[in-house]
Amino acid sequence: MTARKLTAKSLTLSWLKAHEVAARNSKVGLNFNYEGWNFLLWHDADDPLFFRLALPGILDVNDRNYAQALMACNNVNWNYKVVKASLYEYDEAGKRQASVWVSFEQMLDDETSPEVVTRAVTALIDAAERLVERLEEA
Q1: Which of 8, 10, 67, 129 is 20–30 Å from 25 (CA)?
Q2: Given a cut of 50, is residue 47 above it in pLDDT?
Q3: Does domain 8-137 bear CATH number 3.30.1460.10?
Q4: Does the model's pTM come out above 0.85?
């Protein structure tokens, strides 16, 4: 019997099972809720060892808070390893929208431990909370 190849999805599913967290597939990946946050594991069929876990849309951005959101994202990017905060722009019903996304990215290999998912979840929650606090201070 051959061993299953590690992928970002298999690693995350293993972690979710160990933590008794349900997941659901979406168009772009795997969604799950943990500690009140909605996570998205991006699926990249061309690169299954690329692990990108995100907290999508944690804050809506508009003309009034655009500059503050951008500065809060920069603060996260400066202060957190492997965590990126970005303004994601999209069209919804023909109207331009934007929101803040926070993501954790890492290349996996056969030696990667499921602990990377714990690190990612913890770092993302911490960065998202910091970002929201920073915006509330502004």
Answers
A1: 129
A2: yes
A3: yes
A4: yes
